[in-house]
Design goal:
The chain is an alpha/beta fold. It has helices spanning about 15-30, 110-115, 125-135, 155-165, 205-210, 265-275, 280-285, 335-345, 425-435, 455-460, 515-530; strands at about 5-15, 35, 170, 185-190, 195, 200, 215-220, 220-230, 235-240, 250-260, 275, 300, 305-310, 310-320, 355-365, 365-375, 390-395, 405, 415, 445, 470, 500. The strands form 5 sheets. Strands 3, 4, 14, 15, 16, 17, 20 and 21 form an 8-stranded mixed β-sheet that branches. Strands 1, 2, 7, 8, 9, 10 and 22 form a 7-stranded mixed β-sheet that branches. Bound molecules: flavin-adenine dinucleotide (FAD).
Length: about 525
């Protein structure tokens, strides 16, 4: 029953953005650090070779080319997505986690996200160092094309005329000061964590620096089944390597630690499989034969998996004669666009298709609800004629409808989102849409909803399921919250040396989550290192 092999100071589970940041900083601090990832390669630099033929002969995999973002929804060449026996949601299981397949949108959360929704030690003033570290280490750009031109701007111009000229939004650099601190009525070009016309992100920055260090090791194809523990002390992890049926164990040193960075769905699952969670769920898991620890050894932590959040999404299809739509192709891009990309890292394939983004807050009593709009380059479903673009409207910070990370009979995470279970959420988002519709120019026509709809009609529309409404965007977060599941050092309640550092600990953010998750991971490492030797 003993764990064999190397003894580590820190084992980090999961190479998503949070796990990579945590592992890099832990190794930088001199800790002997092991990063484990269940998936395989993604970017070309990690060994990823899946790609369409037009990339043959280059040092690019499909992951490196930003314009191939939308093709992930129709084509899983390279097995980047998690299999259905891993998680019941659309998530990536590969080096980089979801940052290897996402759109790369990289927006700094406003100061209010920390000040309003985070505990002491995590307020905006406390986050400044962490923010600066991420901004310094992770490049980003609002002008991804290497020829310095902006592409697909007809949709941007139409949106600007609408939102800036008519609705009173300020056109800003969205991560500049002060718009990085306050996302009230701001509009601008999207910002992505791309570099040199290619996808960047933590795999290209933090992971690269970690890999330079002799005290860091990275192992892919290694799935952690459970954290091994003796009471409240984590001792190591049980792993399954490359799908083999036998398991082995990797141990940590006395005084070492385990950090779960498996993401907002899989960190709760992993904790539950380790006998930490709501006793009702653990009983079911045990009855189905998935628990190796007896009920006497369970740790009662009802915050595990509770109050998970995803942004409710609404697609509004908009048409204008002045707009040229653009749909991306995986295997067959227009030849001139492929050439522009291959020869100059320029043109439409240097970005994921978003042409603008904007935010506002809708007041509700003492609180306020963040709302985001992101405009893409083409129509969707029944509305794909030229001239059509899609506006994604998300509800963000301050929303009050949460779900739960449940486990199915196989013990696999099955999240519920419970959109609009608090009716104020739907009212806020409908008000946001109503406000901007008041300023719609006659030249821009919503196709799937009446521009003259009342707030009540919009509320009903967004909260009735259709292919355009009640959508998940897979920005899962908030499933292991401060105070309920972890303490303010991100340590699992009831454990001495087990931490959760990923989207699970982050509250619903005003912005797309990755930049906020990386900032939170930086802050978490500062807090964990601050604990010194008081771990065990
Ligand atoms: C289609 C899509 C588009 C998105 N677009 C954007 C965007 O443009 N901008 C943005 O900010 N956000 C976007 N997101 C969301 C964002 O990518 C995620 O919120 C973020 O990556 C979560 O980070 P994380 O570190 O919590 O974990 P994840 O990125 O989920 O990574 C977790 C990693 O842990 C591994 N893992 C899990 N369990 C185990 C285990 N037991 N053993 C070993 N390894 C394990 C997984 O395989 C995975 O690689 C998008 C998400 C999706 C799905």
């Amino acid at each position: 029953d003993l764990c064999a092999g190397d003894e580590w100071d820190v084992i980090v589970i999961g190479s998503g953005p949070a796990g990579i940041v945590a592992a890099d900083r832990m190794s930088e601090a001199g800790k002997k650090t092991l990063l484990l990832e269940q998936g395989g390669p993604s970017y070309y630099s990690t060994g990823g070779r899946a790609r369409p033929a037009w990339l043959n002969g280059t040092e690019l995999s499909r992951v490196d080319v930003p314009g191939l973002y939308t093709s992930i929804f129709s084509n899983n060449e390279g097995d980047l997505m998690c299999a259905s026996d891993v998680v019941n949601a659309y998530q990536a299981c590969t080096v980089g986690g979801n940052t290897a397949i996402n759109a790369g949108l990289f927006f700094q959360p406003p100061a209010s996200d920390w000040d309003w929704y985070c505990p002491e030690g995590w307020k905006n003033k406390d986050m400044q160092c962490a923010i600066e570290k991420v901004r310094t280490k992770q490049p980003s750009t609002d002008k991804p094309s290497q020829d310095g031109k902006r592409y697909l701007q007809s949709g941007f111009e139409a949106a600007k005329q609408w939102l800036v000229d008519r609705a009173g939004y300020a056109e800003v650099g969205l991560n500049d000061c002060p718009s990085s601190h306050n996302k009230t009525k701001v509009f601008g070009h999207p910002i992505w964590n791309y570099e040199g016309g290619q996808r960047s992100g933590p795999v290209k920055t933090y992971l690269e620096s970690a890999l330079q260090r002799p005290n860091f090791s990275f192992q892919t194809g290694t799935k952690v089944l459970r954290v091994r523990r003796d009471g409240d002390v984590a001792k190591g992890v049980d792993v399954q390597i490359n799908g083999a049926s036998n398991t082995s164990c990797i141990s940590i040193k006395e005084g070492g630690m385990v950090i779960s960075s498996a993401g907002a769905l899989l960190s709760p699952q992993l904790l539950m499989w380790s006998g930490i969670g709501d006793p009702a769920i653990l009983s079911k898991l045990s009855a189905n034969g998935h628990l190796t620890v007896t009920s006497q050894e369970w740790i009662n932590n009802t915050g595990v998996g509770d109050n998970v959040f995803d942004n409710p999404n609404t697609f509004i299809e908009l048409y204008s004669q002045s707009i040229s739509s653009y749909a991306y192709s995986y295997s067959d891009p227009p030849p001139q666009d492929a050439q522009l990309y291959l020869n100059n890292r320029s043109g439409t394939y240097t970005f994921g298709g978003q042409t603008s983004a904007f935010w506002d807050f809708i007041p509700q009593g003492d609180d306020r609800i963040g709302c985001q709009g992101t405009i893409g380059s083409s129509g969707f479903r029944d509305y794909t004629d030229n001239g059509t673009i899609t506006l994604n409207v998300y509800g963000t910070s301050g929303l009050r409808s949460f779900g739960r990370v449940n486990l199915d009979d196989n013990g696999i995470a099955l999240p519920s989102s419970n959109f609009y279970s608090d009716p104020r959420d739907a009212t806020a988002i409908a008000t946001f849409i109503h406000n901007i519709f008041q300023a719609l120019p006659p030249t821009l026509t919503p196709l799937n909803v009446d521009r003259n709809s009342s707030v009540q009609e919009l509320t009903t529309w967004i909260s009735t399921w259709s292919p355009y409404t009640m959508g998940n965007v897979q920005h899962w977060s908030s499933s292991c919250r401060f105070g309920a599941c972890v303490d303010t050092n991100t340590r699992v309640l009831g454990m001495s040396n087990l931490f959760v550092v990923d989207a699970s600990i982050v509250p619903p953010l005003t912005t797309n989550p990755v930049m906020g998750i990386m900032i939170a991971a930086e802050r978490a490492v500062e807090r964990i290192l601050g604990l010194g030797s008081s771990l065990s």
